[in-house]
Amino acid sequence: MFKRLLILFCGVLMMCTATAASAATVTKLKNGLTVLIQEDKRFPLVSTRLYVHAGSGYEEPREAGISHVLEHMVFKGTKNYAKGQIAASIEELGGYLNAATSFDYTVYIADLPADAWKTGLKVLRDQAFFATIDPEELESEKKVVISELERGEDSPFGFLFKNLQQQTMKGTTYAWPIIGYRDTINSFTRDDIANYINKHYQPQQMLLVVCGDIDEKTVLAEAEKLYGGLENTANVTPPSIVNLEKLDSTGPNVQVVEGKWNKVYLGISFPIPGFEDVNTTGIDMLAQLMGGDKTSPFYRKYQYEKQLVDSISASAYSFERAGLIYITAVLDADKLDKFWPELMKDLSNLKASEFKDEDIARVRLNLEDSLFRAKETLSGLTSKIGLFEFFFGGEQGEQNYLDEVKNVNREQLQNLIDTYLKPERLKATLLAPQDSTVSETTLTAQVVKNWESEEAAKKLKKAEEAAGKKETIDLGNGRQLILIPDNTLPYVAIDMDFMGGDSLITKKQEGLSVLAARVLTKGTGSMDAPAIEEYLADRASSIAASASRRTFSVSARYPARFSKDILKLFTQMVQNPTMAEEEVNREKTDQIAGIKLREDQPLGLATRNLFPFLFTDSIYNYYHAGIPARIEKFTQDDVDDFWKKQKAMPWTMAVAGVFDRDAIIAFAKGLPEPTQKRPEKFVPTWNNDRIKSIALKDRNQAHLFMIFETVPLTSEDTAGLELMQTILAGQSGLLFNDLRDKHGLGYTVTASSWQSTITGFTYFYIGTEPSKEEAAMDGFRRIIKEIQDKPLSEEQIKRGQNLMRGQYYRGHQSLGSRSAEAAGLATAQLPLSYNKDIVEQVQNLTPKDIQEIAKKYLNVDKAYILRVAP
Question: Which of 110, 422, 524, 600 could form an S-S bond across to 120 if both were Cys, CB 3.0 to 4.6 Å?
């Protein structure tokens, strides 16, 4: 589901250098199918999308979830591709295949190397028009979808939105979740799905988008050949516009749902018109002004100043025919009595006149900036132009939106407040800890009291040449600067990686490095945190810090025209951070809240405990985010002392984008000069206890990890481990095909790996029903035995090799991905070409090589088992 399509992809079309994309061409075929083609030669890649104007908002009540089930079934076999071959046909070429269902559309996605674009067109056509819908496969996939549904119910945020969506959109086709309900999902037959396809999957209701390193005329000819002969077999009658006046206006309605939560998760919604309404641009701006980021009044007052909440935000979710303003907050139960009435008072007294000129200008800038940043990757650009063409009239729609953003004024904003933020339309849901004494009656009375109701490869080399040559400069005394010029877009990405992080603290100081990272960017000189947030927002920029187990990072992302401002602020933050006591206390509270939030979610709880379970000593045994009781005791002096140690450590900085070389060198020389050496390497001790179970009550699913000790990044086996993991993972991977497709044991089944220059591990993961745990573990063991006993096929090896190559290219499009990679590799004392070298080494591996890797490392008898279950 997209959060307000226009917010994600709207803004101003801006001119780039000669490497930028050319103008798009739009052609309507004789059968009404629209084809949008845009040439973009920056990368040797092609992104393809097929949009179908049908989603959950087009369903009948008895069909709730059928659009999403169909999205699953198109991967289970088509006229020209047997089960398992669809994803394999894309991944074996190094591509990526996926699909997504929204309220108003379904989109089929294929990203491929440029020389394989025809395959993408063929596969998407087969999925949309020639799915076989085998009855046995349907029964199996229903279990997978139910598992996905249960997984969503385990998340407090998913549960909250689903509940409010149902209340706010009651009486409309937006009232049910995209995924549907258990009873409707289980009721679907092959005939039901076939009837749905015949009703909605008409060429006249579709848009094909192809963007990338292609020739427009050649692509159009192929699209005509593959899609032009498809016939419309039915007239399509779109659902009618939702009449907001007919929606429930008997509020305010407040619902409290108690459960095994550590916090109160609160959501408030008001109905708004669909995104074709003239008011939706103003509503977007209003939501952003209320609580869109850290410069907003909601954040400033409730999270930063009064510290009543752990998080708070406001958003506009606009669908095609209706939508909702959605306000969320997470807080401690004992703070609700103070927070709730004050929020209601602020909402009731909200005045557009209180928004400052700079606030409005900032929102305009960031809405415009979002479009430009979407163009950084081909996938982002393809989705942007596709959605605008499908719903908003293409490039003219973009220009219209930009004009509306520029022209929205306070009078219009006030009219929107008066029209849509009405207490009789208010719906609220609160997920509260058990025995928290939160009262629906009291909360509802406070709404009424405080708010009076109105009514009760080759191309890759060329791209690299266009981007400029990398340059590594040794500044001396443990300082290294890497320059990556790229003039494609007028942006800059900086990543500065220090050695240090958790290696500078003791076991009793777990979480201190994370706390220091949180506080570092919250003040310097005369600028406090709110001033910094405004300063950065006014420049559509960001500066962030993070800590890991062996490093500490400071990064910046900003438009090149603001380089002087951002470099100055970056220097001040690193050299002279304020580390104010009030900020330390505030961030301690937020850090503890984040831990509790993570522990409310099964996967978060599992990954938090992963390293402390696997290792019994060294920094790998630390709870990286810390222990709440210890975090409470940290002082301003603790944070100051840590930063003094940290900034004295050796560092590497990578800068990518449009920059003045001399200015960047001067900037780097003005940063801390290291006085300490790199920390000594260590050998962590692996745990002798190999099984750990964690209980998380009142959840639907069990989450299982089978983990195997491997080797450091510098091992000659790394390429083989990466290829094995890639073959096991993915939609056409061995684990997915067996445990999910064949046996319906879980929605998410995958393999992944982690390596450092010291050690590493590979793990299998599945989320499944508690009753299927043993079957899932047996499935892991069965797959392992198969790949140990018999070499994989050449086709499977080739798929993995191509997939790794495609993932490498796709993952290196953004400036930030390249600067972060360069800084990280250099800090680890690995070659800057390390990741690319691994991809190349993989191309020479054989089935026998992977069989030996599996025998060497996938030892079931020595595997670690981590389990989180009800």
Answer: 110
